[in-house]
Specification:
The protein is α/β, with parallel strands linked by helices. The protein is about 40% helix and about 20% strand. It contains eight helices and ten strands.
């Protein structure tokens, strides 16, 4: 275990949000939803190399863990959107759908889901469920990395007559500032329970890293582009 003290990111959150981030990070570790492999990096579809990997879809198989996460998510949503500030919850296809259902149930709101593209037959619908003109919608997905899918879903909701100011995810990578910028440009506030910084700090605290792993992960989190390019070059 490394003795390096992890840096807390971000430091602008309230005590309640910090507690939620720590609980979320621990759940992700306990359910093996996050993996650290700096010695043999993962390769994403973009070609980017990464020492970290997350699979929030695993959470659907852990009832106690997902119940706690939905409780924390509902509290975060209410603190930001208000108690009567939403009319429906929309899940993004496909990973966001189960989480949207649980959030909608917890907030006693109707649920919809948004396809990545129109169905292609029948009604050619991109949104399933009843969306009334002017309805205030919150988008739910499992995680956010660079934000491309979020923008697609947001635009589909607006095109269908809904209004949307918030998106919620369990996990935001927290290392790609462009997602905050691109969503803010569309008037969307991204709400997230935890980031890679939270998970890395919790893993370090719990002794989950092998010697040298935390330093490699931290190096990636501080500059993912440079870390990825260095590994890609080294393997040529």
């Amino acid at each position: 275990m490394s003795k390096t003290q992890p840096k807390a990111h971000p430091d602008h959150r309230s005590a309640t949000e910090t507690d939620a981030a720590e609980i979320t990070a621990r759940i992700l570790l306990e359910t093996d939803s996050v993996l650290f492999r700096p010695e043999d990096p993962f390769t994403f579809t973009s070609g980017r190399k990464s020492p970290v990997y997350i699979d929030c879809r695993r959470l659907i198989s852990f009832p106690r863990a997902r119940t706690k996460l939905m409780e924390l998510g509902a509290e975060l949503i209410e603190r930001n959107a208000g108690y009567e500030g939403l009319d429906a919850i929309a899940g993004g296809e496909t990973a966001g759908i189960p989480f949207a259902a649980w959030i909608a149930d917890r907030l006693s709101l109707p649920m919809l889901y948004v396809r990545k593209q129109p169905k292609g037959f029948g009604r050619n619908a991109q949104i399933e469920g009843e969306l009334k003109d002017g309805s205030r919608i919150l988008l739910v997905e499992d995680l956010a990395s660079e934000g491309t899918s979020k923008l697609n879903f947001v635009r589909a909701i607006r095109q269908a007559g809904g209004t949307i100011d918030y998106a919620f995810v369990i996990f935001n990578y927290g290392i790609f500032p462009q997602i905050e910028t691109s969503l803010a440009a569309e008037g969307i506030t991204l709400l997230a329970l935890a980031t890679w910084w939270d998970v890395a700090a919790m893993a370090e605290r719990l002794g989950r890293f092998q010697p040298g792993q935390y330093e490699a992960v931290r190096s990636f989190l501080e500059d993912p582009e440079a870390w990825s390019k260095a590994r890609a070059t080294a393997r040529r």
